[in-house]
Amino acid sequence: MPTLTTVADWTITASGDTATFTHATGGYWAPRVWSGRGLAVAEADLAALDKALGEVLKLPVYWLARARRGDSAAGDAAVWSPPRYDPDDEFVYLAGPCRTDAPAPGYRPASAFEIDLVHLRGLRIRIAAYRAAPARG
Q1: Which pTM does this prediction carry?
Q2: Which of 121, 28, 135 is nearest to 75 (CA)?
């Protein structure tokens, strides 16, 4: 799989129409995935993830995946829920099309997870809007 970008602790690679996200941090601060249902990222990691997503959206591999999908709604933010911050664990949760190789119920730490390339734009829109909103209380 060719590496598309590396930003801070995030490395994004691609194979076919799928992007694999690998996060360097394990343990408590590792991203959490509920395979097929959602993603949770430490709020402190959102800026780097937002930047990494922006880099991928500039690449031909993203645009070729969108063209192959042939869906005018591909990339819409609506496939992802608005982000929800949980002050108890300092993670931001988004329901959406994220998956791991080992599906399990509930959010589980994952050093790597996959998202179809066509859904990266929607994820970036949701994260950018969250980051631009006034500070949470």
Answers
A1: 0.92
A2: 121
